[in-house]
Design goal:
heterodimer; A: about 525 residues; mainly alpha; Rossmann fold; Serine Threonine Protein Phosphatase 5, Tetratricopeptide repeat; 3 domains; five-stranded parallel sheet; about 5% strand; B: about 425 residues; alpha/beta
């Protein structure tokens, strides 16, 4: 697994590379392209290098104006305003503001979008090199960087370096994002698990067959996997009586099933069991084991059903998710794309599964910090769902929820809040007030207010999420744990910033505060 | 000591720029003999032109050294020709290049060069020329008129006109509207200007236009397909660049071949390996080419800053493309600068294979970020068969345009995948 320390190290390397590149320059155009999708993080980096750079290098900043996003005329303007630049030997000009340009035109598809306009202005010529003998650090988002490469290839080819900074997602963002992962399990990835027999009856039946002499039958294999499935679906839904114990039981039963299915050469069933066991390992964060199983399942599915079959797409989705969790993003992207293409081919461009696939990809980009791309795909998924399923559908609410989280990650809090509330409203209307998804909406809203340091609202919604989770799902379900963790994380931040006085007297808040302070 | 290491790497970083060698100072510092064959070929086509009105097209990959080479061509022919060499991008907004403003730009540059070389032109002629330029660029000529003993002095006039052409789209539009249906009038005026200069300096005229290859491919098609005749109408020698991808357009090539009398010169990427050779065990790169590329680097980075092994590997990783060669070395320098910063006491920092490896990995991100599934297929085909299934496919042309795929030629045309992209493909188990 690629650890976050690894990412930090990469960022640190890129930071130093940027620094030495600026310092090495002397009276030449030194075009440096810095890529970062998180504005806050970007600003931290800018501040840092402006502090740490050699003192003889003058620092300037430009924010591109949205009316006329011409880089060269902005720099010219700066030179006019700061005549000392003309005589300066060493200067660095930091350029921001490119992230404001949307890649979608608001005036219809045939209009030039602001971003296209921006790209058009990048048509630099050799002249520019004489006129701007400075280090220019142009800050762009990942998606814009790709656009530059495609649409302004010559400008791109003048670059003296590219520096990629991966933003550190905060814990709380990761945790609140747990729902979309699960969403994916139930809708796209794993086949529904259903058992006509209740748990006790299944156990009884298995015990009976196991006592027989020739117990190793396909029936027993199926029962094992059925029983494993019951435990699995209880853990999916958060209805396990004892989460940990039931997870282990599920694993045991699937392992038994697999062993028998292999012996008896029951390949189709085997593929299912492998997938289910993979899901269980995944939820225990045993990603390598899960990946191995998942790949076996995929190969088997292909062999049995051919390369072009919806189940192949499903397996690819499973595998992609595992790659993503292991931060093997390229492999994840490839698999998701294959799944998407296959789904389109088999089911047509307009199909709920296509929307789900788009959603998966969006979430992948999101976890890579490629927010703009993620946003575009999420938006496409939303549109498709609205078109196919109507505006009032739980999947539409999920899309709204995801989009809201994306906006939040980019600091667009108002938009995020609007969508989050809309998703909540829809969920209450469609699913009732006592539904897990509603609790998740509360949790997400809390996270949203937390990012804005609106502590009162944060507290309010976390408590609502927790209360609802307890009411509907019992004390031990996994979501409740997540919410509780989030709440603690939040309270710690409040303590650290000395704003405890803003919190309410709610017993839950107070008891947790006590616990945190004593530790 | 470390300071020396630091300043040496900084100097190398600065030397490793992507600019073509055009200014005297850079040429003296960095010049290396290369592309001799191409220069000879161009020279021969121009010199062999019976009427001294050859039209020659130079096509080659972005960053393979066309501009430097054309500047060199100018220097070699300066003694026997009146040569003006300019980049179209320095005169006209790239998105607005068309056959008319290319012609107008030729006229402006001819006059400017004549001024620079102080070619004596009769006052009355000169004034008429200037009047013509002024009229079409809405310039008040009186501001520039300063009568000196030797005649009119129009200092600054052409700088002004160039500025107008570059920034004022209204005037460009007006020029276009004015001459669109009167191309022969425009060409006739240009011919007159050229003839006057030629006669007065007693040399044939050669106009070298650079960077036409940087315009958008569709625009290039339009210019070269629909308006090639107008563009080639002037009765003097013209050399211009065109995008390499445009040459894969069969109908366009046919037109160009007819109109240039088959005078299309391809500037090949330096061929380190023969076709198919790179897959053989112990394949050795062509020693001449290798030496040429190493020589380029030796001019820009001190030998003690780089290990021989690494130097040789950089050459191979560049695929023979000059700008890539510089880019890889530049990235290595940056890593070394970082190490110097972190370990100021370490005297042994040098570009070695590990550092090169890190640099390549970093650069591969630039390539990796935008290739999609379909691109992988084309890259795979090209890697395996040295040609794509469909060389006319737009996606292939885009890959060619973006240096993902490189075109090589000797007696036959073949393609290969950029060595850094090969690495990306290997990492993904595509090949």
């Amino acid at each position: 697994m690629v650890s976050s320390t690894n990412r930090e190290q990469e960022n640190e390397n890129n930071y130093d590379d940027l620094l030495v590149s600026i310092e090495a320059n002397d009276n030449q155009l030194n075009l440096l392209i810095a890529v970062c999708d998180n504005i806050q993080f970007r600003d931290e980096i800018i501040q840092r290098y402006e502090q740490e750079l050699n003192l003889d290098i003058a620092r300037y900043r430009i924010e591109l104006p949205s009316e006329q996003p011409s880089l060269s005329s902005s720099i010219n303007q700066l030179i006019q305003e700061r005549p000392e630049l003309k005589a300066r030997k060493n200067a660095v000009i930091t350029v921001t503001g490119t992230e404001k340009f949307r890649f979608l035109s608001q005036h219809g598809p045939n209009q030039q979008s602001p971003q296209e306009k921006l790209l058009g202005y990048f048509q630099w010529t050799r002249e520019a090199f004489k006129h701007f003998p400075y280090s220019i650090v142009l800050w762009v988002t990942t998606s814009l960087q790709q656009q530059i490469e495609q649409k302004s290839p010559d400008f791109w080819s003048w670059r003296k370096g590219v520096f990629r900074f991966e933003s550190h997602a905060k814990n709380v963002v990761d945790i609140t994002n747990i729902k979309p992962h699960l969403d994916l399990f139930t809708s796209e990835v794993y086949r529904d698990i259903s058992s006509l027999l209740p748990l006790e009856d299944l156990q009884e039946l298995i015990a009976k067959i196991e006592q027989k002499e020739n117990a190793k039958t396909p029936q027993l294999a199926n029962l094992y996997s059925d029983l494993g499935g019951v435990y699995l679906s209880r853990s999916r839904e958060g209805t396990s009586v004892d989460y940990q114990k039931e997870q282990n039981l599920a694993i045991d039963y699937f392992q038994k099933a697999i062993k028998l299915q292999e012996e008896l050469n029951l390949e189709i069933e085997l593929a299912d069991s492998l997938n289910n066991l993979a899901e269980l390992y995944q939820s225990q964060e045993k990603y390598q084991q899960a990946e191995l199983l998942c790949r076996q399942a995929l190969e088997l599915t292909k062999k049995l059903l051919g390369e072009e079959h919806p189940d192949v797409a499903g397996s690819l989705n499973n595998l992609a998710l595992l790659y993503k969790l292991q931060k093997k993003y390229q492999q994840a992207e490839d698999s998701y794309f294959q799944a998407l293409e296959l789904t389109k081919k088999l089911l047509g461009e307009e199909h709920p599964s296509v929307a789900a696939s788009l959603n998966n990809l969006a979430l992948l980009y999101k976890s890579q910090g490629k927010y703009q791309r993620a946003e575009l795909l999420c938006f496409q998924a939303l549109e498709l769902r609205e078109k196919l399923l109507g505006k009032e559908h739980p999947d539409v609410a999920s899309s709204l929820n995801n989009l809201a989280l994306l906006y939040k990650s980019q600091g667009k809090y108002q938009d995020a809040e609007f969508l989050c509330l809309q998703a909540l409203k829809l969920r209450v209307k469609l699913l009732g007030e006592k539904h897990l998804d509603v609790a998740i909406s509360f949790n997400n809203l809390a996270g949203l207010y937390l990012s804005q340091k609106k502590y009162k609202k944060t507290e309010f919604y976390f408590i609502k999420a927790l209360e609802l989770a307890q009411k509907t799902l019992g004390k031990n379900n996994s979501y409740r744990k997540v919410f509780l963790n989030n709440f603690k994380y939040f309270l710690q931040e409040v303590i650290n910033s000395n704003r405890v006085s803003e919190l309410s007297n709610h017993p839950l808040t107070q008891s947790l505060l006590k616990e945190l302070k004593s530790s | 000591m470390t300071d020396t290491l630091l300043s040496n790497f900084r100097e190398a970083y600065r030397n490793l720029t992507f600019l073509p060698l055009i200014e005297e100072e850079e040429i003296n510092k960095f010049k290396v003999k290369y592309g001799t064959k191409v220069i000879e070929e161009l020279q021969q086509l121009i010199e062999d032109s019976y009427q001294q009105n050859s039209k020659v097209i130079l096509a080659g990959h972005r960053g393979c050294g066309k501009s430097t080479l054309l500047a060199e061509l100018k220097r070699q022919l300066d003694a026997t020709y009146f040569v003006t060499f300019f980049s179209i991008s320095d005169l006209i907004e790239m998105s607005d290049v068309n056959h008319i403003n290319i012609l107008f730009a030729i006229a402006v540059n001819l006059m400017e060069e004549a001024e620079k070389q102080s070619i004596k032109i009769k006052n009355s002629t000169k004034e008429n020329f200037y009047q013509w330029f002024a009229e079409h660029t809405q310039t008040n000529i009186d501001e520039y008129k300063a009568e000196l003993e030797t005649g009119f002095n129009f200092n600054g006039l052409f700088a002004w006109i160039k500025g107008v052409l570059k920034t004022n789209s209204t005037i460009r539009d007006e020029i276009k509207i004015k001459f669109e249906r009167r191309i022969s009038e425009l060409v006739n005026n240009i011919n007159q200007i050229a003839t006057v200069i030629s006669v007065n300096c007693d040399k044939p005229i050669l106009v070298i236009i650079d960077d036409i290859d940087k315009i958008d491919i569709d625009l290039a098609k339009d210019i070269f397909q629909a308006h090639i005749k107008a563009l080639f109408q002037p009765n003097f020698n013209i050399v211009m660049t065109i995008p390499i991808a445009a040459l894969r357009e069969v109908s366009l090539v046919a037109t160009l071949q007819t109109e240039t009398n088959d005078q299309i010169v391809q500037m090949p990427v330096s061929k380190l390996y023969q076709k198919g050779e790179r897959n053989q065990p112990n394949a050795q790169p062509n020693p001449t080419v290798k030496a040429e590329l190493i020589a380029i680097l030796n001019k820009r980075i001190q030998r003690n800053l780089i290990e021989q092994e690494a130097l040789e590997k950089i050459v191979i990783e560049s695929g023979g493309v000059l700008r890539e060669l510089i880019r890889i070395t530049n990235e290595c320098c940056r890593i070394c600068l970082r190490l110097v910063r972190r370990e100021p006491q370490n005297q042994d920092i040098k570009i070695n294979l590990d550092i090169l490896d890190e640099a390549i990995n970093k650069l591969s991100l630039d390539f990796d970020s935008r290739i999609g599934v379909k691109d992988y297929e084309i890259l795979k085909e090209t890697y395996e068969n040295f040609k794509p299934n469909d060389p006319k496919e737009q996606q292939f042309l885009d890959l060619l345009h973006g240096l993902y795929i490189l075109e090589y030629r000797n007696h036959e045309l073949w393609y290969d995948v950029h060595p850094i992209v090969v690495k990306v493909l290997q990492q993904k188990n595509i090949i």
